Amino acid sequence: MSIENKKAFKDPVFIKESGGIEEYKFEQNGLTVLTLEDHSAPVVTFMVTYHVGSRNEAIGHTGSTHLLEHLMFKGSRNFNKEKGTAIWNELQNIGAQINATTWNDRTNYFEVVPSKHLERAIEIEADRMRFALLKDEDRKPEMTVVRNEFERGENSPFDVLDKNIWATAYQAHPYHHSTIGWRSDIENIPTHKLQEFYDTYYWPNNATVTIIGDFKKNEALKLIKKYFGEHKRSENDPPEMYTEEPKQEGPRRITVKRAGQTGVVGVGHKTPKGLHKDNYALQLLGKILTDGKTSRFNKNIIDKGLATSVFMYDFPFKDNGMFISYIFLTPDTNHQTVEDLVIDEYKSIINSGVTTEELRRAIAQTKAGVAFSRDGSYAVASALNEAIAIGDWTYYTTFMECIDIVSESKIQEAAEKYLIEDNSTTGWFVPKKVEATQDAV
């Protein structure tokens, strides 16, 4: 037997196990598979995570992964309207829940199906991995759907401010672009450019399959080999995204003035890459600042009648992320007053740290949030999906261990290191009052 045939015969190869999740690798085409059996309900989640997102886009084709997400539901070689096997119909007819999502570092396609229909989900995802039908007559109507999504975001004070803060904070790195893309790219990207993007990134060696729920591992691996095994690895490795954001050398500001009812203040600071240990301290700090009635911002801003709500954006990404405090103001509240209160709270933590009670409560809140977010096969697959995007799926299985060892001093050190003026980008959303016009008499 040749070496290549031996490889094919042995596929997949067991790689490692963590938290009950097992990783396998199909060496012949590079596909990674994660499995976790849970027979508590006759349901299984099948998810394919592609290592491509808005991070891999550039001017001229921003929003490509999101537009492709729409088009890849229009049909593939074996599943299309012409054959009477449209993807949506095939899956909804068996009671499946299906969808896809796109973000900075990844795109995922998933099905939650009755266990007996797992094979159909595998067959469909394998088919559109390399044989999606990207037609110009489909792109044009889907472009209008995506543009409508874009316009809905433009009508949200939070969404438009968040987009502008990221675009101001990041000048070189593709995190400058929102996942949905810029309007002109959405409207004008030609279909052949989307095909090129698809042919660059949508390959087994740039994907991770996750199977969670009621299935038998050996049978599922055989099905994956049966359907995904026809795909070769890409001739060239997907191109590396090597652009790094230059060091920020001073505070940045952005003000957005649009029609609206609610003023918003966003105070952001760049954070390290997602797998950096300092992110655990920053996530607990986010809880201390914004989670619950006893949080610092609730006591010092909301209870004073200056804001209706607060929100902390501290999600880790593959590359540098952002720690952004969003404060939604009450009517007639001064933006500068609230911004100063946010900065004063940061300075207090830098100078005096946090209390043992605040840390204990933040860890308990985090544990509860993690427990609720991991209830069910889809919830587990979804959380794993984000860990895969960051760069290591075991981030999911080791997260609470790393949270448990964060100390008060680590939080203070992280605040001192990252929450500094020269690392900041501050944004205001200032509502413009639309004056009523009086009809001429």
Q: What can you see in these coordinates?
A:
It is a single chain. With 441 residues, the protein is of the alpha+beta class. It has helices spanning 3-10, 64-71, 87-92, 118-131, 136-154, 157-169, 183-188, 191-201, 217-228, 278-290, 296-302, 335-352, 356-373, 377-390, 394-404, 408-418, and strands at residues 13-18, 21-26, 31-37, 43-50, 97-102, 107-114, 207-213, 252-259, 264-271, 307-313, 321-329, 424-432. A seven-stranded mixed beta sheet has the order 1-2-3-7-4-6-5, with helices on both faces. Strands 8-12-9-11-10 form a five-stranded mixed beta sheet, with helices on both faces. A hairpin with a 7-residue loop joins strand 10 (307-313) and strand 11 (321-329). The longest helix has 19 residues, at 136-154. The termini are far apart.
Properties at a glance:
Cytochrome Bc1 Complex, Chain A, domain 1; single chain; 16 helices; 12 strands; alpha+beta; five-stranded mixed sheet; seven-stranded mixed sheet; 2 domains; about 450 residues; about 20% strand; globular
Which SSEs are present, and which pair or pack?
Layout (H helix, E strand, L loop, with lengths): L2 H8 L2 E6 L2 E6 L4 E7 L5 E8 L13 H8 L15 H6 L4 E6 L4 E8 L3 H14 L4 H19 L2 H13 L13 H6 L2 H11 L5 E7 L3 H12 L23 E8 L4 E8 L6 H13 L5 H7 L4 E7 L7 E9 L5 H18 L3 H18 L3 H14 L3 H11 L3 H11 L5 E9 L9
